[in-house]
Hints:
Elements: E1 2-8, H1 16-24, E2 26-29, E3 32-36, H2 47-58, E4 63-67, H3 74-81, E5 85-91, H4 97-110, E6 115-119, H5 123-133, E7 139-141, H6 148-157, H7 161-166, H8 170-176, H9 182-188, E8 200-203, E9 217-219, E10 245-249, E11 251-252, H10 263-266, E12 271-272, H11 275-287, E13 293-297, H12 304-316, E14 323-326, H13 334-342, E15 345-353, H14 357-362, H15 369-382, E16 385-392, H16 399-411, E17 420-425, H17 433-436, H18 438-441, E18 444-445, E19 460-461, H19 467-484
Parallel strand pairs: 1-4, 1-5, 5-6, 6-7, 10-13, 13-14, 14-15, 15-16, 16-17
Antiparallel strand pairs: 2-3, 7-8, 8-9, 11-12, 18-19
Helix pairs in contact: 11-12, 12-13, 13-15, 16-19
This protein binds cobalamin and iron/sulfur cluster.
Amino acid sequence: MLDICLLNGITEFQEENRIxxxxxxxxxxxxxxxxxDENLLxxxxxxxxxxxxxxxxxxxxxxxxxxxxxxxxxRDYILENAHKYRLIGITGLTNTFNDILQTANLIKKQYPxxxxxxxxxxxxxxxxxxxxxxxxxxxxxxxxSENSFPWVVDKLLHAPILDFVEAGNxxxxxxxxxxxxxxxxxxTTIDSKDILPKGISYNxxxxxxxxxxxxRVIYTGFPEAINLSELPLPARHLISRIYSVAxxxxxxxxxxxxxxxxxxHLFPLMxxxxxxxxxxxxxxxxxxxxxxFVNFYDNININHRYLNEFLDGLISQKFSLPWGAELRADVIxxxxxxxxxxxxxxxxxxxxxxxxxxxxxxxxKFQDPSRVAEGIKIFKEVGIAVQAYFVIGLPGDNWDxxxxxLKFVESLNLEGGIDRVEFFTATxxxxxxxxxxxxxxxxxxxxxxxxxxxxRTIIMETQTLISSDIENMIKEAHSLKKKLNL
Length: 486
Ligand code: B12
Ligand code: SF4
């Protein structure tokens, strides 16, 4: 038996076509991915889970990470293996959430003694609903969980399983398992809410029969921001061999406040990791034979000094893997772009969202589109590929402004087959200002099926755009993409 399993639901391969492409290029043994065509750089590992795993391992707990996206039959695999763990923690996004809940339900039915928790960008904003409607979920973690989750693990499991075995007390392990009602006994006997860490929620009445009874959800409050310089490196060794892409998180939080984004509410305080620590992570990644590409998220040029220090570090480290990064194109200088090139950066991704200043202003994205165009031009001059993201159907958008955006895309002179443009459909993700203050933007939400919150389906209308407008805009945007081969 092991202590903890951290589970990532099925993610972007939900789409049938992508599942097929992925599975045809992969080799599986017993349903587990063992090899992937090197050219298919599709999968990105779940970084948040790897950081939590690293902290738990430092405390002596045995941890496994299971990524549903790289399994042939994720549910069968998870159900066959769930009994090995004392606690299962699940992560997921909004569009994969229904699927994750079904999996959690199946696990709990088969193994009621397993303690089941959830966290991540969807659960953080929907904890009340999740806990009151899904008795199989014992606890939900809100926001950054590097403090709260290990605290709860210590309380529930008391010690790593190896300690029990070494002390000759294997029988006591059973006692530490979640016998029904254990959580309620544990937390309801604690008098003062204050001694619980912030960032957890649980239902004190999970065994209730009537819906009215299912409402006693305790929430300890939003957690304090984590000091990123104190975090250990993600536990890549747990899953590294099966990924060819490594993601490195540079910062949490964002100085912008875009209406459609939940990041600023998930990580309200903007922080950047020390360059030294990021470079240490890069060094480790370089030493692993499996990685062929690295992505740096969310934004490597929050300030000029940081960007320059970071790039100087990569150059002096002779970092040789090709890499990509998300960044702001509007503030890039030619010297910085040249340095990016020298540091082996192959592609940059940037959120343009709209070429209309009015639309940007209404949606709190503070960026001058003409400066974005200049920045993109600089990247093309130095030979770095560009991926530009746009959002269709935002509040304030209309046909004139949309056409301005299409003209803007054409004016960028991007290279077909090398650069890319993505048009996402505006989606009111839980935690975004659009979802929390919809009336402020005058939106009408048409669809509350979270499985369709995939940035492709039309989820909302605005005061200026009805569903058929947005549908036609998506069609026009895609035909432009096709025409320009982007
Ligand atoms: C890298 C990334 C991707 C990558 C890879 C995802 C992956 N495999 O991890 C790719 C490019 C594939 C991707 C795709 C998409 N993404 Co994305 N992505 C990110 C990004 C930039 C970083 C994720 C990350 O590692 N964060 C850092 C870690 C430390 O944070 P974390 O994962 O949230 O984990 C912490 C806590 O949440 C918590 N926690 C998380 N899980 C759990 C579980 C347990 C048990 C516990 C206790 C705690 C816990 O503890 C962690 C440590 O504090 C985030 C933005 C961001 N900065 O988070 C968006 C983000 C997650 N993506 C988002 C979206 C919308 C998408 C897409 C739909 C975009 C699109 N248009 O296609 C697709 C969906 C694909 C899918 N269904 O998976 C949204 C999610 C919104 C939502 N509610 O669903 C985010 C938040 C960005 C945003 N715009 O708001 N994404
Ligand atoms: S979408 Fe806006 S708020 Fe969200 S991370 Fe990007 S710039 Fe920041």
